[in-house]
Amino acid sequence: MTGLSALAALLFALALPATFFAAARFRVLGALEASATLHALEIAELSRTNPAFWAFEGVRVRAPEQGRASGERRRVFDASGRLILESAPAVEPAWPLATYSEAVLVDGKTIGSTEAARSLLQPLLMTLLVASCSTLLATVIFALLRVLPLRLLDEALHRASYLAAHDLLTGLPNRGLFADRLTQALKHGRRDSDVTAVLCLDLDRFKEVNDTLGHAAGDELLQGVAKRLSGCLRENDTLARLGGDEFAVIQLGATQPETSAFLARRLIAVLEEPFALSGGQACIGLSVGIGMSEPGLPCEPAQLMRNADLALYQAKEAGRGGYRFFATEMNQRLQERRALEADLRQALASGGFRLAFQPQINLEDKRIIGAEALLRWDRPGHGNMPPDQFIGVAEETGLIGPIGAWAINEACRQAMLWPAHMNIAVNVSPVQFRQAGLFECVTSALQASGLSPARLELEITESVLLNDTEDTLAMLGRLRGLGVKIAMDDFGTGYSSLGYLQKFPFDKLKIDRSFVRDLGRDPNASAIVSAVVGMSRALGVRANAEGVEEQDQAALLLAEGCEEVQGYFFGKPMSAEEFSVLLH
Predict the structure, then answer these.
(1) What is the pTM of this model?
(2) Which of 497, 420, 478, 433 is nearest to 459 (CA)?
(3) Range of 446's domain?
(4) What is the distance between the terminal CA atoms of the chain, rounded to a whole angstrom?
(5) Is residue 334 situated within a structural domain?
(6) Is 462 in the same domain as 570?
(7) Total number of domains constituting the chain
(8) What PROSITE patterns has UniProt attached to this entry (predicted)?
(9) pLDDT digit string (tens) for 418-476?
(10) Residue 510 is part of a domain; what is its CATH number?
(11) What is the pLDDT of residues 149-191, one digit of tens each?
């Protein structure tokens, strides 16, 4: 600190007089340049009118004390440098001198030169005066800096260090500090043969709070979460906010896995209590993934974090609000999932999907009135893969949009090869329905194929209607406005099916196969089927029973008044070629 103070004072003492003298010298040189240039122009003009001017030699003129040239000495030299004329002030300019020369040009040819000179003694004396004053001020500054408390600087450095390592909103360690502490914890754990556990925490339903109550409420909630979580930890544990609604805990020197499991349950429980926010009340949950090092064995921090993240993914897949430990098979499942995603992308790019068609039958006259298009995929190296094994991954990765669009286009194209009275039904995933572009996809498929909109039927499940109901109903209305039919699939298996029937006029209700399977054996199943068929008749919509596999089931459905069925008894899903043969 003393060295810095002395350096600052020295710089001040030198900089001010040096700047003053440089400015004064610049002003003198500027005046000399103007004077010499003007003098050169006058001599050039004189030479044109009086060529004998250069016959003079060493003529000296002494100017009066108060003359125009007072304080400045002027000289004229010929081309060889011989002095021709000198105009000097009454008092010879004192040392040191500043001089400036300018060539005398006549018709572009140098015939001589002029020189102007002034003394720099006055600016130099003024500079010494300024130097004296600046030295005095520098001494004062040095004294002030010497007595200035170091506490201010220490506080500034401490604050900067804190901000670099902590989250500004919650005050918790940030990702950088967390990574550093995890590295140190693993080193100590390996040396002492202790287990280091990492718990990755992810808030459930946090986005809903941001969307409904605003970001200010979201920030307030994160601060409350940090406070509650901190209250559950020991002194040697580390809680950090990694970003967004993601937190993490480093747990040291504990009996594992019991201690981590206990902490996970406690953290989940403490966040189940509602949060009182300025914008309202928020109820959230917590999912926890736990990764642990092996005693005495090396473990990379990045790998331990990946393990905890994988466990967190499993916890959220299991329904949220729980915790999971990392297991080796989790990593295997992740690798399999990535391979599945890559194969799905390849199949989409190379045309690896196909459609199977299951006949839909008019139960009264047993005529084929249409078909349901079912997605099929012969995965290389795995054979035929059922949709329930890859649709979930397609939905999570966003591939369901292009896959669903392909299915709609292909179904419309195939239906154009059938008789004009036959319809084609296509399932629409809830995720595909929520993505942008479904309406444009349907209109494009109809235009490209030439299929009448009345022959296309889109099947949706109740889950489509669970979120953003107004927007969803508006989209259904636009599709129905095209002339496309809308069917509710798996009717009766949800919680609010009847309420949705009141909000939107569906064209068809599809009775779930779970009720059809127990017809004639379970009175409740028979009652539900009878009620759905009666309801559809009262609403003026068709009823379709799925999963009909026996003659008795078909007979009972016919007796109930069900108009339409599909199932193995009438036909399994088949290729487009097989379906065409069946039609003929």
Answers:
(1) 0.56
(2) 433
(3) 341-583
(4) 99
(5) no
(6) yes
(7) 3
(8) EAL (PS50883), GGDEF (PS50887)
(9) 999 999 999 999 889 888 889 999 999 999 999 999 999 999 987 787 665 678 888 89
(10) 3.20.20.450
(11) 556 656 666 777 777 778 888 899 998 889 999 999 888 888 8
